[in-house]
Request: fold
Amino acid sequence: MGDVLLSLRNIYRCFTASSGKNIEAVDDVSLTVIKGETLGVVGESGCGKSTLGRCILRLIEPDSGEIIYDGMNLLELNREEMRQIRRKLQLVFQDPYASLDSRKTILQLVKAPLDVFRIGTREEREEQVICMLSAVGLGKEFAAKYPDSLSGGERQRVAIARALILSPEFVVCDEPVSSLDSSIRAQVLNLLKDLQRQKGLTYMFISHDLSVIKYMSDRIAVMYRGRIVELAEKDELYRNPINPYTKLLIDSIPSSGMEFSRLAEYASPEIADSYPGCGFCSRCPYAEDACRNRKPELLEILPGHFCACHKSM
Reply:
């Protein structure tokens, strides 16, 4: 295993619903991200994976925990200190239609981060934008265009260019291809891989699509109801899933071709139990009293393979 770029320690974030009920969106998550890798985070809608990504960047403030980057706890930084660090930590949003201001040209959109940090002269910034557009497969003629004139794939390339214009080290890719046509997805995924090799990037790749996660990731964290329930190297996870929830996901998709989100009837947070223990226990055929009463810890069961399940201890 290589050098650790980012460490999360006991990250917790709770929201209060309109009904007054507390929802633990991220519940005691601890993990490390290795420099140069792609850490996949997979889970159904509502499991907390996007909230986790935004907590890392402090777009959502965690209630507690530590986020260690370059020896610093990001949660202890003031606004200006965090602003400077964000040059190294960027986000590619899910929806390129919503994330790009239709009133601005592509040049203005991609150049904006350079303007904010006052990097170079205006001419140098514009030249840098043209180079970045080329890096994501867009010609210089796109600089004068507006988002409304672009296809979904072209918009997402612009969003990627904007995220990378400051030469970050770590990029959270939050469902970056879920809104794209299947014919365009492979192009964008291959682009992300090529840029990672060229620029030495580290990704956290968030998705509900197991096939996309498998293609992109080096290691995969499976998330359910705000908690990491399994974490392992990609091939190990698919070859030897330990957590019953992970097994359900992997076994169901190839056998029936179901979309990941259609597993809701088996394991949706909306129908989850109210037990204080494992969030999956009401759906798990192996559940025992310990599962209902005590949350399992994420423990290393095999070298590099972590699982949160009382049955695996």
